[in-house]
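Budget justification note: compute hours in this period were largely spent on complex prediction jobs such as the one shown. Inputs:
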Amino acid sequence: MFPKFLRTVISFLVCLFVASCASEVHRIPTGLIPATTGTDRVIVLAANTEVAPANGYKRVLRYGSKWKFIGHISQGSVFEIQNDVFMLEAKHMHQAHLVLSSNNRLVGFFLPVEEAFVPLSASVQLSVKDK
Amino acid sequence: MRFFKIVLAAIILVLGAGCAATGQKYSEMATSIPSLAADKGRIFFYRSDTMFGAAMTSDIRLNDRVVGRSERGSFFFVDEVPGNMIVSTVTEVEKQLTFKLAAGETKFVKTSVSFGVLVGRINSELTNSTEAKAEITGLAYTGAPLKK
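Corresponding output:
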């Protein structure tokens, strides 16, 4: 019915469309308990660190970036970037904060608008120094 | 082969054509931009003056309300009640950006064109103030007339 070339082009476009439809970042609803003490704590990353959230694109946490403690969620302590921006990207873009468990292990991210936790496939030890 | 050439030409035309926005440059009007009310936050939207995807435009919606358009070489700003913000643009797919806006805070949202399947996509992302201010300087204001 269709010429072979046209079928090839249509097949290619369909494949491209399916492949280019990123899925939503995997997230678990959770609420932030704002910090009442320790809000002056700021950590500084001592090395570039590449991280990959579940279903999202890889991000690099930059050397020298400063993160302020703002509260807790059930998965850990939440730190917001200072004087810069940090986002997760999957199907859409989301402002995101770091979630650290004890000993500065990054376990995932907190999305403040969605009020949700985005886990990492595997937790990552961050090299940090307190400012 | 002829069909392929026509498709290629159409794609190049869609991605490459289009004029830059016209209006007063940020550098010429920065001093006339009103200061931000204490109970509001401000969001600057801008798009660099680049040729790639120049003809592609989209309404920019903020929390389901159209606040302006993503056009090559343009910027505008809106003052909003603090809270959750969802920015969306629609071309062949809808792309969203979510962030929180606090009182007294200014945030910068950059829109840009990326490859899509047929016509490309307009994405939104937050940018830090240093980078944004450097880029906005030469862009044209396309927002509502400023009150004098």
